[in-house]
Amino acid sequence: MTSRATIIGTGSCLPRRILSNQELETIVETTDEWITTRTGIKNRRISRSGEETSKLAAGAARQALEMAGLVATDLDQIIVATVTSEMTMPSCACLVQKELGATRAFAYDVNAACSGFVYGLDLAEKYIRAEPDLKILVIGAETMSTRLNWQDRNTCVLFGDGAGACIMTGNNSGRGMLASQLYSDGRLFDLLKINCAVSMNPDLSLADHDGSYIKMAGRDVFKYAVRSMEKAASMVLDKTNLTISDIKLIIPHQANIRILKSLADHLGTPLEKVYINLDKYGNTSAASVPIALDEANREGCLQENDLLLLCCFGGGFTWGAMIFRW
Ligand code: ACO
Prior knowledge:
Elements: E1 4-13, E2 17-20, H1 21-24, H2 32-39, E3 43-46, H3 53-68, E4 77-81, H4 92-100, E5 106-110, H5 116-130, E6 136-143, H6 153-156, E7 161-171, E8 176-184, E9 192-194, E10 214-216, H7 218-239, E11 249-252, H8 257-267, H9 278-281, H10 288-298, E12 307-314, E13 318-325
Parallel strand pairs: 4-5, 4-6, 11-12
Antiparallel strand pairs: 1-7, 2-3, 6-7, 8-13, 9-10, 12-13
The structure holds acetyl coenzyme *A (ACO).
């Protein structure tokens, strides 16, 4: 039997500080009622000094290593999906490598916004298909709080900080990744973006400068997110000759409860099959799928050979889906 890329350990790490909707009411003009009904979010985590993106990433990685029964020097490769590393250079992945002491691994970042972790899994799978013994650490880690305009109620209520990780290696039991499909459409870049402070403002004009904060056309993002994740999910179901009723658990990017309800409707599946933790953490961008995966795994939602569907959508736009036999 051919070897497939299998997840052998998961982990997550969240900042200690909890920011509730009630506390947000004291920061911007908003209400718990508005945030809850429009998004489903109740709380989010906010990092402090010592909880930078690479530190959260390393915390998640340590848990994943422990579950996999590996040590850091067993790792061959480290991929970190992030848009909020504390440094532009070196990569967050190199900082994680240092934190862990993963001296044998080569390390690099992936920027595909909220889809980054799923893109990272796809990359890892390609390496493992070529060399099944490789042990690859894939992390999604973000400190979105550092890129929020805390006076913009349209965005600052939606996001949170955290990290999730998994370790992949080859396995010839028939389990592992069955199919993956990724997409991007750069024509839509302007609908969800974080400007780079200098390059988007070459004349350093204060008047034109709208800051390196997240900007979003919420309604457009909503529509594209539902349609695109549904299309990607249908594509991987077709590729594997499966139907949605074969899937035990769906772990989508956690942006908004209304997006997830609409996605479940479009896929023709009950919401109970969709793993949801956005009420606790808000939208943690590239970290949302791996945090949810780790929680689902530790809660025992996945038994051996269960079929798992991951779907993602994010800035770029980027989106995709993949199916695992757990
Ligand atoms: N508190 C109170 N009122 C608010 C808030 C807030 N935090 N934010 C916006 N409003 C107001 C607006 O100003 C507007 O007021 P107005 O009618 O007086 O102008 C009113 O609420 C309605 O605003 P809309 O933008 O039309 O509200 P909508 O129902 O579309 O919900 C939301 C906004 C939640 C952002 C929604 O569009 C959405 O979920 N979009 C998806 C975007 C998303 O989840 N992005 C995350 C990043 S993308 C990703 O991860 C895939």
